[in-house]
Amino acid sequence: MIDETQLPYLTAHQQDVLRRFAWMEANVEELRTAMTGVFEFELQRGHRAARTWFRMPEPGIAITRRHLENALTRKREGKIEECDLVEWATLLLLNDAYVLDPGDEDLIAEWLNDISLHLDSK
Q1: What whole-number distance in Å separates Cα of residue 75 and Cα of residue 36?
Q2: Cα–chain-centroid distance for residue 8?
Q3: Smallest Cα–Cα separation from 63: which of 13, 2, 12, 115?
Q4: 3-state per-residue secondary structure call for 57-110
Q5: Phi/psi class of residue 78: alpha, beta or left (left: φ > 0; alpha: ψ in -120 to 50)?
Q6: Euclidean distance between the first and final Cα of the chain, in Å?
Q7: Contact status, residue 19 vs residue 30, Cβ threshold 8 Å
Q8: Tens of pLDDT along the chain (122 residues)?
């Protein structure tokens, strides 16, 4: 078991990239680069996994209905591909820095899971 007190805090830059990723203003590669050494992930079809080596931010980065609406609007308008949407939803679920809005937690979790698991990313 890892002693969380031994883990590093996320830097301001890392938190900024996480927030921008939640709004689809940063892409997967920018996230991967910013999180080097503290968050590794694999997004291959049939094998989606992540490992975290950072202290959870307090408060966490809240994911709300507005994030979902933004992502779905971008997809509908053709600004992103389906695989982008799948990777986005998957990473929101895999990264412990994100917390789902308590007022809509069940709805948001259901949508993110549906997008991550039932759309075809590759």
Answers
A1: 28
A2: 19
A3: 115
A4: CCCCEEECHHHHHHHHHHHHCCCCCHHHHHHHHHHHHHCCCEEECHHHHHHHHH
A5: left
A6: 34
A7: no
A8: 567 778 999 999 999 999 999 999 999 999 999 999 999 999 887 788 899 999 999 999 999 999 999 999 999 999 999 999 999 999 999 999 999 999 999 999 999 999 998 765 44
Residue type, 25: E
Task: Name the phi and psi angles at 52, rounded to 5.
Answer: -120, 135
Q: Tell me the one-letter amino acid at 113.
A: N
Give the tokens for residue 93.
Answer: 């679920």
Quick check: 55 and 10 in contact, CB under 8 A?
yes
Tokens at 111, concatenated: 């949508």
Tokens 């994030």 sit on residue: 67
Give how far the C-alpha of residue 104 lies from the chain's centroid of Cα atoms, to the nearest Å.
17
